[in-house]
Amino acid sequence: MPEKIFKGEVKGKIVEVRFALGGKVIQITRKVGESVKKGELLAALDKKIFQTELDRQLADYEKARAEFEIFNLQKGEPVDDLTKYLKVEKQAQLNASVKEVELAKARLDQTDLFSPVEGIILEDSNLMPGMYITPASYSLKILETGSLWFEIEISQEDIPFFSQPKSGEVEIFGAGKQQVSSGPVFADSKRFFLRLDLPNKQGILLGMKGEGRWE
Predict the structure, then answer these.
(1) Which of 61, 108, 117, 131 is the most exposed place for a label (fewest CB within 10 A)?
(2) CB burial of residue 141 (10 Å; 0-12, 13-18, 19+)
(3) What is the pLDDT of residues 57-97, one digit of tens each?
(4) 90, 123: one domain
(5) What three-state secondary structure class fits 10?
(6) How distant, in Å, are the alpha carbons of 5, 21, 158, 164, 212 from that of 155?
(7) Which tens digits make up the pLDDT trace of 23-37?
C-alpha cells in the first residue's frame, strides 16, 4: 500500500478571559508574547469603590445582627404568633445582610483577573492602565501551550482508513519528526480532519506547517 501523506498545521486551545465587572484599569502585569502561569495575575481594576461597598455591607450586617440580638434579649423565646413572626423577620434581615456581604466580597475579588491556564498572551485588546472598561469588554486571549496538537485534513474517501487507531509519523517543518497515533475523525460540515496529540511540544509554535504520514 502506498504511503499516505496529509498536510496540516499546529493548532491549540485559545482561552479568552475578561473582567466580569466594569471599572478603571490600574494594573497590567503581562504583555502580548509573554508567558503566564495558571492562577497568575493578568490585570486589576481600581478596588476603592468595591472596597467601600463591602465596608458598607459589613456595617449593615453588624447593625442587623445587633438588632437581632437585642430582639432576643427583649423578647426571649417567642410565646405568641406575633413575636414568632417578628423574630422570623429579624432572622431574614440578618440572613439577607450576610448574603449582601458575600456578594460585595465576590465583586471585590473580581477586580483581579487571573489566568485560568498556563500559556502565552496572544492578544490584549490594547488594554492599558487608566482605561475605564465595561463588563465583559477588552478580552485577553491566551494560548494554552499544553494543548498544542497537529491537525490534518483528510478526504471523505480516507475516513475508513482511520476507522481504527493507526500509528504514524508527523513532521513539523523546522521542528523535527514525531511518532503519533491517530484518533477519531472530526467533521465541521465542510471538511474532515484529525487532531493528533504531539508527545513532544518543545519548540512547537502555533501555526507551524507540516505533514502526517501513514503506510
Answers:
(1) 131
(2) middle
(3) 999 999 999 999 998 898 888 888 888 989 999 999 999 99
(4) no
(5) strand
(6) 12, 46, 5, 16, 14
(7) 999 999 999 999 999
Within 8 A by CB and 6+ apart from 152, the residues are: 6, 7, 8, 193, 194, 196, 212
Average pLDDT score over the chain: 94
Task: Kindly give, in sequence order, each residue whose CB lies less than 8 Å from that of residue 82, ignoring residues fewer than 6 positions away.
Answer: none
- Three-state secondary structure call for residue 98: helix
Radius of gyration of the chain (CA): 28
- State pTM to two decimals: 0.82
Q: Once rounded to an integer, what is the mean pLDDT over residues 106-133? A: 96
Task: Please name every residue paired with 177 in a beta bridge, in sequence order, or none if there are none.
Answer: 171
- Residue 160 φ then ψ, to 5°: -60, -30
User: How many domains, in total, are found in the chain?
Assistant: 3
Q: Domain span at residue 72? A: 48-109
137 and 184, same domain (yes or no): no
For residue 158, give the DSSP letter.
Answer: G
C-alpha to C-alpha distance for 164 and 162, rounded to whole angstroms: 5
